[in-house]
Structure formats: structure tokens, C-alpha cells
Design a protein that fits this description.
It contains nine helices and eight strands. By secondary structure, the chain is of the alpha/beta class. Strands 7-6-5-4-3-2-1-8 form an eight-stranded parallel β-sheet. The longest helix has 21 residues, at about 5-25. It binds pyridoxal-5'-phosphate. Pyridoxal-5'-phosphate (PLP) binds near residues 83 and 209.
Length: about 240
Amino acid sequence: MRYDELQIRLERISERIALAAQRAGREAKEITLLAATKTVAPERIRLGINLGLQHVGENRVQEAEAKLKALVDLRSASIWHFIGHLQTNKVRRALELFDVIQTVDSHRLARHLERGASEIDRIISIYIEVNIGQESSKSGTSPDQLMALGEVLSQCPHLRLDGLMAVPPYVEDPHLARAFFRKLRELRDLLNQSGLFNYHVGGLSMGMSHDFEVAIEEGATVVRIGTALWGPRPG
Ligand SMILES: *Cc1c(COP(=O)(O)O)cnc(C)c1O
């Protein structure tokens, strides 16, 4: 894809984000565009960062490692989020590579992250991934386990909970995803009311290419967009 084509797509998405925010009485600047970059070549990610994309989301530790090597010169100009399923044996590497881990979904993973982060003396931003549609095929903590995981995280001084993340069930009509987005927002509000954290947990990472506008109307603070930006993935 050429530079100007990517620029046009990025502008269109930014416009759509701004319009959705306006409909919801929100400000566009409350919403972070995260470019989901699985299968996207480093040189295309480079174009994106040069066009002003700042947040990048990768699903696999190894794939991200290779890309970050090719993009070292842009490392400080970009914020890298892990958005895939994280295996505990990849935690150390993930902590070296990423700024944010969006997919914390178990006590076990939380404990590994806490230990790893404390060893390198760093506080890492995380999100809890919630399996909002309770699908057996998806990772994420189940909604009724959320408070228990929150309690564990509140005892982890090297993990800072930024918010909740979810990938709702795929539905053709994006408006049918609304109930899931709303539910994630309500869970975040419950978490705040619980008083477990002495700071406000504000983040809601939800909405992808086909439903990000509905997600924004329901309070998304981070939308993770792949195909609308880069075009269809191979395969
Ligand atoms: C691939 C991916 C996205 C982006 O999906 P698109 O439909 O291509 O926008 C968002 N979130 C996660 C977790 C992903 O794996």
C-alpha cells in the first residue's frame, strides 16, 4: 500500500472516530486509535508511525520482537500494546518489548507478570481481558470472575490496571454488539465502585474495524483497528 493511500484511510478513520464521539457527546481526544498490526510488515508500520499513528497492537511476542528490531529507531515514538493471548513462558520477553499488556485474564498470569515486572523494577500498564460473550473459543476472564481477579491485581504493586479489554462475539450488524460494549462499561464502573484501587480505572479497550463507532458511543477509550487501516489480512 502506498503512503498516500494509508494516509487517506487514516484520515477517514480519524473522521469517523470524531463523528462517533460527537454523537455520544464526547471529545475525539478521549479516544485512542490503536493500530492492530498482526501480519503487517514493519515497513508499513513505519509508514503509519510517520503518518502519526502512535499506538501499535501486536498479538504475538515473536512477531512483535522481529518488527521492533526493524523499527528500533521509532521505538520511542511509538507505544506498543500486547493484545494477543499471553503464555506465562513469554511473560519476561513481553515485559521487555511492550508498554502495555491488554490481555491479563488469570491469577496465574497476573502473578507471573508481577514477579517479572518487580525483577526488572518496572511498573507496567495492564488491562484485564474479559470474555464478555462467555464464548468457550475465546480467552478472557469470565465476567463473574472479574472482581476476584481485580482483588489479586490490587495486591500487585508493579501492575497498574488501566482498564478492561474485550473482543465481543462477531455479529454482522455492529449494533448487536452494543449490549456487549455496554456490559464491559458497567463492569468497569463496578470495579471502580468496589474501592479495590486507589486510582480511577478508566480505560475501555473495545471496538474493531467493523464496530468501533458503536463501541465509542458506549464509552470506548481505545479502539483497535486492523483491516480498516491496512486492508484485508492474508489468508
Ligand atoms: C486483529 C485484532 C484487532 C483488529 O481487528 P480488525 O477487525 O482487523 O480491525 C483488534 N483486536 C484484536 C485483539 C485483534 O486480534
